[in-house]
Specification:
Blueprint lengths: L1 E2 L3 E3 L5 E3 L7 E2 L10 E4 L2 E4 L4 E2 L1 E6 L13 E6 L13 H4 L10 E2 L2 H8 L5 E6 L8 H13 L3 E6 L5 H10 L2 E5 L5 H8 L3 H14 L2 E8 L7 H15 L4 E6 L13 H12 L5 E4 L9 E2 L6 E6 L2 E3 L20
Parallel strand pairs: 9-11, 11-12, 12-13, 13-14, 14-15, 15-16
Antiparallel strand pairs: 1-6, 2-3, 3-4, 5-6, 7-10, 8-9, 17-18, 18-19
The structure holds iron/sulfur cluster.
Length: 334
């Protein structure tokens, strides 16, 4: 087993884990809230180090990232576990399980993962995704460090619930982030995800300050986080604090895990899209079959730079450097 980072051993071999804002106090032979980090005799172990639940070459759009190496593939890996307990979790089969509770975990070394990632010439790097990657911090960090030496990009798809010190370490080797901003209500974060909004806002501000690529996803659950006024406040905050070019993906929810509210109505998504678009230049709709909210329109000349159908991406309006073909405006990071 691999020793974890960011912890202190206290009296009676109790451990305080400082990786995420849950700051668990863990007694010997017990796990933290994430079910991943275990106290064994006063040492904290990262139980999912090198344990992979899924690995695929995905379109980078699937993360979702719409302004980062558009049209390319990224080797995407996941494990199990999460430090949040969102009642609406859309991938609880892996996120809400421990390594002991999930049978199909495959062992891979850091070197093997990086070698697999270099197998395809159209692959840009490695995405740490599917479950919450920050609870597998040590493996993500070690892999990202080695990937960097091979000129691969590192992408993190996360709930953003991580303390600043480990986040800064991650920022040194990671290139792009998609962070969930699940609502702009403290009560929603407290009652539905059992966490705090303020910590996620801090993560977003830290990533923005680092100048690494940042996109945000907000999953809309009817009656819980679809209030237009709160959504407008969130859009204003993103624009003011992170910039009006921050990419926002508004995603459709489906009933899963402990939530049986029916899926998000399309008119709700369209209304929120309209609200966000008042403050942000790049707003998209995800998890729908709509024709709206897929394409990237140049924020300078208004022409379509990238069009999308499902995960097919057509780059007819963009140069290989990521500039608008018509006016030269920089839109996508390559
Ligand atoms: S990473 Fe896990 S063990 Fe550590 S504080 Fe967060 S939930 Fe607790």
């Amino acid at each position: 087993m691999h020793e974890a980072l960011f912890y202190q051993t206290l009296e009676n071999k109790t451990i305080r884990c400082d990786l995420c804002p849950n700051v668990c106090f863990i007694s010997p032979n017990k796990y933290g809230i994430c079910k991943i980090r275990k106290n064994e005799n006063g040492i904290l172990y990262a139980e999912t180090y090198g344990k992979i639940s899924a690995a695929h070459f995905d379109p980078v759009e699937k993360k979702p990232l719409y302004h980062f190496h558009s049209g390319k593939k990224i080797f995407s890996i996941g494990s199990v576990g999460c430090n949040l307990k969102c009642l609406f979790c859309q991938n609880s089969e892996i996120s809400q399980r421990s390594a002991l509770e999930y049978e199909n975990l495959y062992h891979h070394s850091v070197k093997e993962i990086v070698e697999l990632a270099t197998k395809r010439s159209d692959n840009i790097g490695i995405a740490y995704t599917y479950n919450e990657p920050t609870v597998n911090f040590e493996f993500v960090l070690d892999t990202a460090k080695m990937a960097k030496t091979k000129n691969l990009k590192n992408v993190v798809v996360s709930n953003g619930y991580i303390n600043e010190k480990p986040l800064l370490e991650m920022l040194e080797v990671c290139d792009a982030f998609n962070i969930d901003l699940k609502s702009f209500s403290d009560d929603f974060y407290k009652q539905i995800t059992f966490s705090k909004l303020e910590n996620v806002k801090n993560t977003l501000k830290t990533i923005r300050k680092s100048k690494k690529h940042l996109e945000i996803t907000c999953l809309i659950i009817p009656t819980l986080n679809d209030d237009e006024k709160v959504f407008e406040e969130m859009s204003q905050w993103i624009s003011a604090e992170l910039g009006n070019k921050t990419v926002l993906h508004i995603s459709r929810y489906f009933p899963r895990y402990k939530m049986n509210i029916p899926e998000t109505p399309i008119p709700t998504l369209l209304k929120l899209y309209e609200i966000a678009s008042k403050y942000l230049k790049f707003v998209y709709l995800g998890n729908t079959l709509l024709n709206k909210g897929n394409d990237t329109t140049c924020d300078k000349c208004g022409k379509i730079a990238i069009s999308r159908e499902g995960y097919s991406t057509y780059l007819s309006g963009i140069t290989v450097q990521g500039n608008c073909q018509f006016c030269g405006n920089k839109i996508v990071e390559y």
